[in-house]
Amino acid sequence: MRQFLLGFLAVLSAPLLAQTTDSSFSPKPGNSRYMIRGYADANFIAGEGEISFGNARLVPLFIYKQSDRLLFEGELELEIEDGEVKMALEYANFYYQLTPRMTVRMGKILVPFGTFFDRLHPSWINKLPTVPLGYGHDGLLPTSDLGIEVRGGAYLAGMRTNYSVYLTNGPRINDGEEEADEIGMIVPEADIDNNKNKAFGGRFGLFPFADQSLELGFSAQSAKLGDKGSDFEDIGAFLYSFDWTLVKTLPALGGRIDLRGQLNFVNIDNRPYEVLEDGSLETFDFDNKSKTAFYQLAYRPTFGNQFVQNLELVGRYSTLTTPEEAPWESQSTQWTLGLNYWVDWRTAIKIALQSDEVEGGHDSPGLTKTDLFFIQWTIGF
């Protein structure tokens, strides 16, 4: 399948060379365009043992348009964390329009596994100051990676659809050499390609209603995780997810609802893991399956004065379950409730309460509860 996809992508990429003689490709000085977009946010966090102004971020998005078909986009994240300025490259890729309904991009891409990170991760789009369990830089789910992707849209039985197919370097597995208590855990963001295998995946979305208010999606990814030549070389992973989005104005409720969610499953090949800890060899043998989910509902009124219409109520419930008998076994739940005030369509002040409950885990084997209060000011530009 992967060999077929490589050939398929090569055929699709052929127009990249043929199109250079087309009149739409005009690299002459003055015909190209350059744009800076992005977002920024500032946070206040209060909880047990912490009352402070937290992380502040500037996330510029650089877009260079060479022609009507070809552009480059890249996003940097500049963040103040623990008194230090940290910089990360979120994504950077070339983008080419093969046909009016099909595009290809190559570089560091946002992995279209579900919809949250691919579409919702900017703080002015994310309706809450935090991300659901399983996401983020230390999560179990793919966020960004180096690779190539083809995406587009079509009609199926009169219904609008969209699709994405990609090849990336893929995730790796924690071998326990540096963190023995995380052996067997998937690491989605690998800095380098640790083997010759590539992650193969994609997403298919369907709009069953004519007004396109509802989208249903399915995503999947398959990859080998282990380092080349290591004992873990043949360990594979299969990830899949279901997502849904419903955005609709309901006169009976006097407002617009925004209902979103995603169910994710991470299945890794089973095998015994041996860890040398405190001078003794310990063996773990567990069913290496994890799952995580989030369910989010937002309501924004359409009645009353302008102040009322600028308010938005948001609630999100998230869960994360990791393998039983793994050294990192845990059961986590998270409730987040928020009230947003939209200064304009891309500027919001968010107030949120979040309650986390974690049972197990290598940091604390018992039950841990954490309550946090957030204020976030965010703007998209």
UniProtKB/TrEMBL annotation:
InterPro entries per record: Porin_dom_sf
First and last residue of the signal peptide: 1-18
Keyword terms, alphabetized: Signal
Protein name from the UniProt record: Porin
